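Regression test attached.
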Amino acid sequence: MPRRKAGTLIPIELAILEHGIAAESFYGFALARSIADGAPTLTAHGTLYKALARMTESGLLDAEWEDHAPAEAEGRPRRRLYRVTGEGARALAAAQVAAPLATPKVSLA
Amino acid sequence: MRAADLVMRWAEIYTRGLEPAAAGARRDELASDLWEHAAHEPRAGAAMLSRAIRGVPADLSWRYEQQRRMLAGVPRLQRVVSGGVGALVVAAASALVVFGVAVITRTSALAVRGAILPFSETALWVFGLTGLAVFGLLLLVRQKTRPLGAVALAGSSALVHFGLFDLLNKSATISALSYTPQWSTAVACLIAALVLLFLSAALLWAPSRKAIS
């Protein structure tokens, strides 16, 4: 597989930044639904969480586990909450300037 | 089994043997996703499975990346030695199992034809030690049980002695070779080499005190 140019974003990363930048924080399943935009097919687990991990490591996103209290109060597992960092916002802006038509309306499976 | 359980079972498989923090985080995040999915869509089983199946290549590629990172912290010489020893142990263990099965097959065929009495003491040793070799080989599959597997294989090395002894009066080749002056020394050296290999591997793979504490 050819290595991609440093600083370029692939469609799933663009989609995550576009959907994530509007929210204060977001978590995996909500993001998958938001990206699907009403379509029945959600992004595959492996694709989504691999991309989130990669973007967190490269500084485009911040990630932290939510507190125990809200999860326990709602009787569900804790969510891992992500936020788009300043670097992530800049990368998104740069990608939109470079290719304004390259919206992430592609299959992300 | 529920779809969510199947997906988590798959996650257990592809996170096995990885750095505990990364593996645990991936499983926890996936468990949260599955819970949210089920809460949002009560009959989400097929959709969950579809998401899991479509994500398999990404899961495997993520696993490969995690393994590469784990190995990056290990000196190159240690990686090469560890990999070489692993391949040698698997090859030697497989050879032991094949030898044991061959001896058992030969003995069983002769016993069925009535040429020899079944269940001689040597045949029972061969049977037991072959079983031990198979057990050891299976234990090599998991990183955690690998040292124990190597120890079991060291014990099963005696199969060379009992197997060859069992074949003395059943194989013309073994019978002829056994009359050569170097026979006993060669057999003893082979057994000693196998024991040394397996025990060295067990020591190499044993968890260090640092890792335990």
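Expected vs. actual: identical. The mean pLDDT of chain B is 88.
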